[in-house]
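INFO batch 0412 | record 1 of 1 | parsing
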Amino acid sequence: MSIITDTRVSENTKIASTSPIPVLTLGKICDEVCTDVFDNVRNYDHEKSTAWNNEIIQLVLKGIEKESSAQNYKYIVYVTTIERVSDAPSESDSPSRGIRTSSGGFWNPEKDGMWNHKWTTSGTNIDVVFSIAWIHSTNP
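INFO prediction complete | emitting tokens
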């Protein structure tokens, strides 16, 4: 059974299949954190973006720590905060900008992996792109 059926993320699904935390749970953590961090924010502010990213990363790591029962994993959270330059949601037929981010790793494909996620809302002009990596370690 495939958790993610969107063919545009099929490669991400394969990589994420090794996740020690279900990707639906990771998505929920990311979405809830962003909703909380941007609760009273309506517009992107470059001066505040570093603080937002730091807060998001710390809260996502806390959420992962709370959900993780696998003691032998280390996690890395990458966050990119993006200003949407039009009021149109980024899923529309006329996107407000283009972005491509890629990652690679030399790891054990049976135990290590990475998962990507995008948070967007019509309440702000901000999108957040996450990459969460997990690496199995023999030394917890």
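INFO post-check: Confidence is low (pLDDT under 50) at residues 1-10.
INFO record closed
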